[in-house]
Here is the input.
Amino acid sequence: MTSAPNGPRPPTLLDATLPVAVLIGLIALTIALFGVGATDGPLQVALLLSAAFASLVAFKNGYTTAAIAEAAVGGVTSAMGAIFILLAVGALIGTWNMAGTIPTIVHYGLSFLSPTWFYFASAAICALVGMVTGSSWTTAGTLGVAFVGMAKVLGISEPIAAGAVISGAYFGDKMTPLSETTILVPQLVGRGLSVSRHIRNMIWTAVPALGVALVIFLILGLRAHPSAAASTDAAQQALEAEFHISVVNLLPLLLLVVFSIRKFPPFLSILGSALFAGMLACFTQWSIVRAFVDDPSLGPIATGIKAIYGAMATGFVSNTGNQAIDKLFSRGGMASMLTTIWLVLGALSFAAIMEHAGFLDRLLRPIVSRTRTKGGLILAVNASGIGLNVIAGDQYVADVLPSRMFSSEFERRGLAPEALSRAVEDSGTVTSVLVPWNTCGAYISGVLGVSTASYLPFCFFNILSPILDVCYGFLGFKVPTVGPGEPTGVAIADAGSAQRAEGII
Here is the structure.
């Protein structure tokens, strides 16, 4: 197709609304027909069909086939960092299981974490580790996997355990200068906003939200009724019988923390820890490695190499004969992440077309112009962040667009830039994990093995953060205003370039 003589036409409100309506309709139909199995392929089809429909509307408005194709490819390209991390985490889960790292964490955890305060401790520990690593993804993909495994052994709720892991991991991600979103959002908002100032202002919503979440997790733990037939002692004995349990097995976790502190790119850090764990397994879990490869014709070196490749590529498969252990620790591999990657590609293709054709801008502009009060403006930012996580399916889109579009309005009304950056983080960053087809929701669900719909009601921190921010806005509590001599220049950054600048891959 060719473009209109005077170039593409601005979209009408109907143009912008129709693709969203089609998306919602197809997703609702998919979930109704396939239930929890929707993310295994049908949901991806729904997203690609929605992207195709958005393309048709864009063609009608004068956009060329080449322009739309370039936009879709650009959207996918911006996700390459996330895709590499997904593959690396899959490899890490496989080799950490083979090396006994995750079984060792589970074993030691069973010694110290009773069902009564398990949820509370899971959230608190993940919050601390998230602050050290600066990544909710890394925290959930390592300790999170172990904690959900422990919940299964203890006979308590895996969805609640997943909610505790996510609440803690996202708090840690928000409250550290090591996090890419914590660095990105102040840059997008601009006006001289520093990362430290941004974090200090987020304390007023993040700490109360986590505090309330911890209290709820403690109450849920007190009311928990473990259903496991075997005692924790029996579970520990079973682990000791199959794996060589030792603090040495925790070296891959220590290495990952060191890489994170030294600010190595996440992909290289995770992949490096995965490779190290695979090599460690050949010394500490040789009987497990040999049973996994199950090829007597191979020598020790060939067996070790094949085991490392296999665990990283298709995941570790436990062959101990203990059904409970084999089921719990047979996981991981890059191949296990391919369905999640498919979901990410579909969501970002739709988002890229919606943004390039001006549909997202057309939907957000009326919201910006019609807000009359400061509380209403903060509500609009939070609603936009949550809405974009649903429509666009990507955390970075939900962070970038509101930061760009509301910055001048916040400045005009005398609100400090940290008021906007907090609203963006409280909505765009933390609610992304609550949407099944969002990159974050797809990733977390994939690594924890718990569906988004199952863990969503228990992500108390993620639910409370935007609620508190909106309440503060209407009450005028801790909503900073611009002081004398405040810088007013607005910086605008591109999500893809920002990710590359922060060294995500």
In short: The two ends are 36 Å apart (CA to CA).
